[in-house]
Amino acid sequence: MSVVELSDEENVAILAETFTESLSDIGDKTRQAAVLKRLHELLDSDTPQHYIYETVAGCDELQVIRVGGDQRIFCRLVMGIPHGDKYYNVLFVFYVDPHQYRPDQLATFDDAAEQRLGEITEFHTVDAVDDYLDEMNAFTPVEIRERIELL
Amino acid sequence: MASTSRSDENETEEDPTVPAGVLEGIEDIAEGRTADGDDLDEALDL
C-alpha cells in the first residue's frame, strides 16, 4: 500500500492572462465550470499533487491537469514555499487547451522556455512570498468557489 | 500537444511541442501579466 503525504500548506493559484483568455474562448459555461471545479478541487485538497495527470514529455517541470476527456490545463505546482518555512503550495496556471490537435497552433518548448519556467517558479531567493502572491493576484480556493457558484 | 518525437534514424532528442498558449502563459506570469478577480469574472461573463 502506498503512503500518501498530506500537505498542511495553503494552496493558492496564480492565473496567467493567457489562461483567462483561453477560458473565455471555451465559451460554454459547462466547460468553464468543469475547469474551475477541477482547479478548486486541487486548491481545496491536502494532496494537490495528486491532481497532476502527467508531465509534458521532455519537460518534467511542465505539468498537465486533466479535465474530463477533452480539456487539459497546463500548469506547474510548486509545493512547500518558501523552502525554509513551508507555508504555501503555489499552482501556476498557464493555459487551458480544448485538446483539439491543431498543428498550426503548436510551439516548441525549447531550452529557453524551460529556463523561463524555472525562473518564475524559483522561490529560494524570495523573502516576501506574501507580497509576491499579492502582487501576482493569487487566488484562494474560496475565491474560485465563489465564481463556480455564480456560473 | 505534449509529445516528444524521436527519430529512428538518429538518437537526437527533439524539443517537445505544446500549444502556443502555454508559452504565452509562462511569459505572461514572468512579465507580471496575471489575471485578477475582475479578469476572471470577465472571462466567465459574470
Task: Please name the defining characteristics of this protein.
heterodimer; A: 151 residues; alpha+beta; YaeB-like fold; five-stranded mixed beta sheet; 5 helices; globular; B: 46 residues; mainly alpha; 2 helices; 7% strand; disordered N terminus
* Approximate helicity band of chain A: 25-40%
The share of residues in helices of chain B is 40-55%
End-to-end separation of chain A in angstroms reads 40 Å
Q: How many helices of chain A in DSSP terms?
A: 5
Give the overall shape of chain A, derived from the CA principal axes: globular
Strand content of chain B: 5-15%
How are the strands of the largest sheet of chain A arranged?
Answer: 1-5-4-3-2
Verbal overview:
The complex is a heterodimer of chains A (151) and B (46). By secondary structure, chain A is an alpha+beta fold. Chain A has a single domain, classed as YaeB-like fold (2-Layer Sandwich), CATH 3.30.2310.20. Chain A is built from 5 helices and 6 strands. Chain A has a 5-stranded mixed β-sheet with strand order 1-5-4-3-2. The N and C termini of chain A lie far apart (40 Å). In chain A, 34% of the residues are buried. Chain B is built from 2 helices and 1 strand; from the N terminus they run βαα. By secondary structure, chain B is mainly alpha-helical. Chain B has helices at residues 20-30, 37-44, and one strand spanning 17-19. The model of chain B is unreliable at 2-11 (pLDDT under 50).
